[in-house]
Fold:
Amino acid sequence: MNSAQLIAARRQKDAFFKTHPQSPLTPEQRAQFDGLRYYPPNPALDLVVTVEPLAQDDWVTLQTTTGDVREYRRYGRFAFVVDGQDVQLTIYEADYGFFLPFVDAGAGVETYPAGRYLEPERLDEQRFHVDFNQAYNPYCAYNDAWSCPITPAENRLKVHIRAGEMLPAGAWVG
Structure:
């Protein structure tokens, strides 16, 4: 997705949050909502990665923000470089597709403390399109009524991922 498409998608998401009945925001939040905060588009974090597959029977249970649990298969790991540092993340598989939760070094200051999510696009058996510019906050970042998987330790990075959604801010944040 190029920068113009990314900015247009962000505007659409803001409109959805502000006006749609299925918005994760409460009616009170929607009344004050003035938009999500995003990092500027960062082409260096729009990646095609090669994933090292993990065992087919490698399952993990992730706790959610409300104390529930969800099962995911650990699909594979990939390595990449951010600001000159080598890092690795694990992609998980669920019934609905692939899932990439992660926490970066900006958590709690620039980004949501419990992490952000991506749905990487599988290109073939071992390659995925991972565009961190599309990283988003889980709905529990906006409203405690939502139950969101907590990012596992293996996907907690010591580097900043300055792409995608930032920590929500404004009078509308509950």
Notes: The chain has a mean pLDDT of 93. The longest strand covers residues 69-82. The chain has two helices and nine strands. The two ends are 31 Å apart (CA to CA).
